[in-house]
Amino acid sequence: MRITRLRFLTLLAGAAALPMAATTMRNPVSGYVFDAASGLIRPINGLPGAAVLGSGLEAPALFTSVCFAPGQRTALAVSREGQMYWLQLEGAVVRSRQLEGAPADRMAFDATGATAVFYMEASRQYRILQAGSAGEWMTMPELPGTLHALAIDTAGKTLALAVTASDSATVFTLAAGTAELQFVAQTLSLDSLRLSGNGSDLLFADSAASQVMAAHRSGGEWLVQPVADGRDGVQSPSAAEWAVDGALVILSTGSNEILVKANGAVERLNVPAHALRLDPMAAPGLLQLAPQQGIERGVPLYLLEMRQQEGTLQSRVLFVPAGGQQ
Known about the structure:
Mean pLDDT: 87
Helix content: under 10%
Radius of gyration: 20 Å
CATH architecture of the domain at 101-320: 7 Propeller
Strand order of the largest sheet: 1-29-28-27-26
Strand content: over 45%
Low-confidence stretches: 1-25
CATH topology of the domain at 101-320: Methylamine Dehydrogenase, Chain H
Order of helices and strands: EEEEEEEEEEEEEEEEEEEEEEEEEEEEE
Largest sheet: 5 strands, mixed
Number of strands: 29
CATH class of the domain at 101-320: Mainly Beta
């Protein structure tokens, strides 16, 4: 396994020839991370292979939780004062709009980042947002347990629900605005949940059974099958994600490994024990290995980069050092 230290590159050649009025060159922002200690969102400045973790960005509030959309250009956030915000992220600029209602207990984006949903457990109310515009409040039907995770399709028509009870967990889908729960699968536990943009495919991890399941909706019914398990080296998976070129990425927390499964082959990479989530970033094939509730002071940040080289998918784990004030 290769862990590459990312260095901040400064172009020096010819600098003396630049006129004083020239615009200062800025590194591109390849993604963002929530700093739980400070309550700020911090940019990852520079491209993978030459990036550092930047200082916290100016925002309307300090946050207790942030849910980034795939691509990390939008986010839902809950402030320390209990207010909800819709955020748009562009470089070092954070644009925000406050949302009405109590802080959400669960938040999720669709696979494209265009649609979001948030849920308040006390009132069993949920709301769907599209392009930042909020729809009507809707009531979740009675569930046979606690809503552990949810997902939504791009059209905002279908929700996927991970419901946990004392000794089992169940995956359902729900037609938005109705009480029409459709059973998908029952598992020992549910640790992550993904729904495709068209609402026809599901991916979920069962840490207790050490397996990852996929489900496809055909003719109104869900067909469920395991796509990775102990034979692939999966141990207590905490997250699973669809990736580039049909690859499946699994965070195998029990073995502190990332498994990249593509074309029947499995590549295994070591990861730090604190990584519990896989967050898709702006560049295709780039995932953030994130703690469950944002980074803490002194905890390193890592990225997973996947790219095709000579017809083979190559993966590497990259370390992102801190740079600037924290």
